[in-house]
Design brief:
alpha/beta; 7-stranded mixed beta sheet; 3-stranded antiparallel beta sheet
Length: about 375
C-alpha cells in the first residue's frame, strides 16, 4: 500500500472527538440567545432559562414525572461523584468496570469512600456477566463505555424488584439509546457528548427510590457544599427547578438549549437514527479492511456512539496515523483513550453527519499506508 494516493475530499466537519463532541449541524454561536448573559442565574430570567433547559431534557428523554433532573457542577464526573458521595454506604455496593471510567468509580469507592465494594471486571472490549449481579447491593455501572466502545444492550439485566439502587453513568448513552427509566434510580450525563454541548456542567437524574435514599440516609463522611442535595432532611427541590448549587455558565446553558432545540426538531427517534446510521457507515468501513477491527467484538454490546477500533499496527504507527489525519484536516481527535489499548476512537453520535463518516474510509487507507511507509 506504499504510495497510496491522498484523497481529494475531506469530511465537511472532521470533528470526531468523543468529548467534547461535534456541534450539531448548522451550529453558529452567533445564533445563541444572549439576553441572559451578564444577568444573575438567580434572576427571574436566569431561573426561567435553566428551567427551560431542564424541561427540554425531560421532553427529549421521555423522562417520567417521577424522576427529577438537576444541573450540577463538574460535568458527568461531578454528577456521578455527587451521587456516590451522597447515597452510597447504606448497603453493600457492587461496581462494574470494563473501561477506564468504571475503574474510576471503583477507585473512588475503595480509596476515597472506603466502602470495600464487590468489583466485577471485564477486559476492554468485553462486558462482564450481568446475570451474576447481586441486586441486594447498590450497583455502579457505565451504560456506554466511552473508552472501550462497549455498552449494556438494554436495561433488562436490572430487576424491577431490586433492593439496591442502580447508578448509571449514561453520559455517552442518553439521547442515543432507548433507556427504560423505571430501571434507573440514578443517571448522570453531560451536554458535551451526544448533544455536542460545552463541558463543565453535569446533569443528575434521580428516580423516586434515590430521593428516598437521600432523605432517609446520612453518609458517615463529610460532604462538600457542591455535593449537598438535602436540606433539613428533605431533598433540596430547588436544585431540580433551575436553582443550581453553584454559579453555572449561562453561556453554556444557552449553548445546551440551542442543541436541545435542534434535537427536539428531530425527536429522540431521529437522534437515535442518526447515531445508528453513523455507526453502520463506520461498520462498513471496518468490514472492507482486514487491518481494521472493532475492540468490542460482540455487535450486541458494541457502542453506537463512541466506537473504538483496533488497528493492525504498533502504537507508534497508530499515533502517526492520527497526526497525519489531523494535519490534513480529515479527522480530529481520533486517538484511542490513553488508558485503553492502542487504536482509534470515532464518535458516531447524532451531531456527526453520516457523509463525513463515509469520507473517512479513503483517508484511513492513506494514513495507514503513509504511516507504515
Amino acid at each position: 500500500m506504499t504510495g497510496y494516493p491522498k484523497p481529494q475530499a475531506v469530511p465537511a466537519r472532521p470533528y470526531f472527538s468523543s468529548g467534547p463532541c461535534a456541534k450539531p449541524p448548522g451550529y453558529d454561536p452567533a445564533n445563541l440567545a444572549t439576553d441572559v448573559l451578564g444577568r444573575s442565574h438567580r434572576s427571574k430570567l436566569g431561573k426561567t432559562r435553566l428551567q427551560y433547559c431542564i424541561d427540554l431534557m425531560r421532553e427529549l428523554l421521555n423522562l417520567p414525572d417521577t424522576h427529577r433532573i438537576g444541573i450540577v457542577p463538574g460535568s458527568d464526573t461531578g454528577a456521578y461523584e455527587m451521587a456516590m458521595w451522597t447515597m452510597l454506604g447504606a448497603r453493600p455496593v457492587t461496581a462494574l468496570a470494563w473501561e477506564s471510567f468504571g475503574e474510576g468509580w471503583v477507585t473512588d469507592a475503595v480509596k476515597q469512600l472506603k466502602i470495600d465494594p464487590t468489583v466485577v471486571r471485564a477486559d476492554y472490549g468485553q462486558l462482564p456477566d450481568l446475570s451474576a449481579i447481586d441486586w441486594t447491593h447498590d450497583v455502579l455501572f457505565t451504560w456506554n463505555g466511552t473508552t472501550s466502545g462497549v455498552r449494556v444492550p438494554d436495561a433488562d439485566f436490572i430487576p424491577a424488584d431490586r433492593a439496591g439502587l442502580s447508578f448509571a453513568d449514561a453520559t455517552s448513552g442518553v439521547f442515543a439509546y432507548d433507556i427504560d427509566w423505571a430501571k434507573i434510580d440514578v443517571a448522570t450525563f453531560s451536554w458535551q457528548k451526544v448533544l455536542g454541548g460545552e463541558g463543565a456542567h453535569g446533569v443528575l437524574i434521580l428516580g423516586p427510590r434515590a430521593v428516598e435514599r437521600l432523605e432517609s440516609y446520612t453518609p458517615a463522611w463529610p460532604l462538600p457544599k457542591v455535593f449537598r442535595l438535602v436540606s433539613k432532611g428533605k431533598l433540596a427541590e430547588g436544585v431540580f427547578k433551575g436553582e443550581t448549587i453553584n454559579t453555572p455558565s449561562m453561556l453554556a446553558v444557552e449553548d445546551a438549549i440551542w442543541s436541545l432545540e435542534w434535537a427536539r426538531s428531530l425527536g429522540k427517534g431521529g437522534l437515535i437514527a442518526r447515531s445508528d446510521a453513523n455507526a453502520a457507515a463506520l461498520d462498513a468501513i471496518v468490514a472492507e479492511r482486514d487491518w481494521l477491527g472493532h475492540l468490542a467484538a460482540d455487535p450486541a454490546t458494541r457502542s453506537r456512539t463512541s466506537v473504538c477500533l483496533t488497528v493492525d499496527a504498533d502504537e507508534a504507527t497508530i499515533k502517526k496515523m492520527v497526526s497525519l489525519l489531523e494535519a490534513e484536516g480529515a479527522a480530529y481527535d481520533i486517538g484511542g483513550y490513553r488508558d485503553a489499548p492502542p487504536g482509534l476512537r470515532i464518535w458516531c453520535g447524532a451531531t456527526v453527519d453520516t457523509a463525513d463518516i463515509v469520507a473517512l474510509g479513503p483517508w484511513f487507507d492513506w494514513a495507514y499506508a503513509t504511516a507504515k511507509a
